[in-house]
């Protein structure tokens, strides 16, 4: 039966990664759900896109699968490589490094994490480094990759993976599918926004050439401009730069690396950090830094000096402020992507925020009555996610033991958000991790950063004493052997990519 209140038209403003990541699932899911409003996406080639954003988190695989994308074709079209985690160099101290892998440090034992038992043994005497029981860490060390096997938990499948890809190619690839799914694309620059008298809802976008684009629901994917959510609806911005003071980035591509590591590399610098993202056709590099502590020339010099291959362009500057929109959904405008906020790309969370926002919008899709509790729920979930990611990123700075630079001294000693102060205190006392966001970074990730930064909790879980120490040591020794043996049989990352291309 026809619903008289059903949405008739959805307008997406912006054709960057966010715009096309919203357009395709909306077009597919709405049609399957029996609602088929027109979806029109407005983008401006003249304005362009931000043009960065290459590393992702494992749920991107399920997002792609839900869209029916063919994995091998996706990898070819986006020049993707596989990502098992992030190597952090010089973060804890200059010369130290650790790995945040996508996976736990062994299977749980009697409802307790493997880490809890490792910690008990560590308190009782010597045991190998925790990272020795992380399968993705061992794979990264050996430069190997193969997808995890299906079946019961074992050394052969105790990991997840994500991708590095060329975000511009990814957006173009999604666009192709979205157009085939019926999305209407309009090229033009929005110069004015019309609003309904009374409730102030957006009713139409006016383009520079005079065309009008009307709609019921407007998705703001206009990037840092936040044209609708802030420019029109004035959602407000919660500024977090007192916790995350990095405010600039330089991005530069360089040639392809001879061997592609299956991980992202992040190296701390005197006032920020650099990224290195291996793709099949080039390497993505960048430097995120704090302008109060480093000037642009020095940032560029350090970036260029650390490139793994010769630069193929000049560094491109980007400015930003860390924080989030107070409300991501106001009236009939929903912000997705950079228009909803920004946190530095240290843990590759922006594309994840996009796909979660799109998923939530589909779960909470309104009709034309725009029942306000839908927006309230969307805003609650987005706020929780932004805050937990914020805390996770600050964790990397606050745990640093670097005191060689004023930037690091300031970040080590700054006051923390209450939620993070609680998380760190809980972990230092007991080795336990609070769940700040059930959909966000899970316990193994928090443990990887805390342990990698040298935090050894004072006590361990009292419920880990049901197994005697010798048996437990035997368990960890056998597990380590199985991990090393299994990883040794895996193909190299390059060989796996080559086989996929063939
Ligand atoms: P984007 O700016 O790409 O798109 C905006 C769109 O709106 C464009 O199509 C533009 O033309 C359009 N538009 C704007 N105004 C308009 C107007 N008036 N009329 C018509 N059209 C208009 N993320 C991640 O997951 N992993 C990573 O490794 C990184 N790395 C990274 C590094 C740096 C330095 C930054 C700044 C960001 C990242 N990101 C990231 C984030 C990632 O780049 C970002 O989340 C996605 O590219 C999404 O960007 P948007 O689509 O929101 O904006």
Descriptive notes:
Pfam families: Trp_halogenase (PF04820). This protein has 502 residues and is an alpha+beta fold. The protein folds into three domains: 9-79 and 165-238 and 322-388, FAD/NAD(P)-binding domain (3-Layer(bba) Sandwich), CATH 3.50.50; 101-159 and 394-493, no CATH class; 248-319, Alpha-Beta Plaits (2-Layer Sandwich), CATH 3.30.70. It contains 14 helices and 21 strands. It has a seven-stranded mixed sheet. Strands 7-2-1-11-20-19 form a six-stranded mixed sheet. The chain has a three-stranded antiparallel sheet with strand order 8-9-10, with no helix packed on it. The chain starts with 8 loop residues before the first strand and ends with a helix. The model has no long low-confidence stretch (mean pLDDT 97). The chain binds dihydroflavine-adenine dinucleotide (FDA). Residues 14-19, 42-44, 47-50, 52-56, 167, 189-190, 221-223, 225, 227, 249, 251, 286, 318, 320, 337-339, 345, 348, 350-351 line the site of dihydroflavine-adenine dinucleotide.
